[in-house]
Write a structure and sequence with these properties.
The protein has 4 helices and 2 strands. The protein is mostly helical and 185 residues long. It is rod-shaped, with a radius of gyration of 36 Å. The two termini are 13 Å apart.
């Protein structure tokens, strides 16, 4: 169970995308914080006239007296908090879906075991007894039809339990985001 949870948390594409968004938001915050400090710029140029040639080199150092980049930094902090919250929400959603699928699988497996341990055989033997009694004239057609209906209902429930178990397995596989061949039985 824990290994399955770890696999889902490591491999699911939605979580990988959410983690990438968190990394992007963290990098943006670091960039905005780094831009608070002056970024010197060097410019070089040549001014030419027919008899005069001037070479010029400028060093520009902005002094941020009023602009501390508080707005962009606050926005980057908010974006990072939002990305963290979305990643956590995605993780919680996936764990809920996984727990639901595992519960559905367990319930369907228990139902299948109940059907296979005797319920199907009992319904089939009741049908055979009702059929034999009808053929011998001991019972009426309604008793035989009722036994047939009961047997068919038990078979339909059994097939539905098989379907539910396979659907739960497919949901678990979808959450694992891996090939079905890797699934232990």
């Amino acid at each position: 169970m824990e290994k399955l949870r770890e696999t889902v948390l490591q491999n699911h594409p939605a979580l990988v995308q959410a983690r990438a968004e968190v990394d992007r938001a963290r990098s943006q915050l670091e960039l905005e914080q780094a831009l608070r400090y002056p970024q010197p710029t060097i410019k070089a140029g040549v001014y030419r006239e027919p008899r005069l040639e001037q070479w010029r080199v400028d060093l520009i150092v902005p002094i941020p007296l009023w602009n501390q980049r508080q707005g962009p930094i606050a926005r980057a902090v908010a974006d990072r908090a939002r990305a963290d919250a979305q990643a956590n929400q995605q993780q919680l959603n996936l764990m809920y879906e996984l727990d639901s699928a595992i519960t559905a699988y367990r319930i369907a497996t228990q139902q299948i075991e109940t059907f296979e341990s005797g319920l199907l055989r009992e319904a089939e033997s009741a049908l055979k007894v009702a059929e034999a009694a009808y053929r011998l004239g001991e019972r009426g057609i309604l008793d035989y039809l009722d036994a047939q209906r009961t047997f068919q209902a038990v078979r339909v429930d059994y097939i539905n339990a098989l379907f539910d178990r396979n659907a739960a397995l497919l949901e678990i596989e979808r959450l694992r985001a891996q090939d079905y061949q890797d699934q232990p039985q």
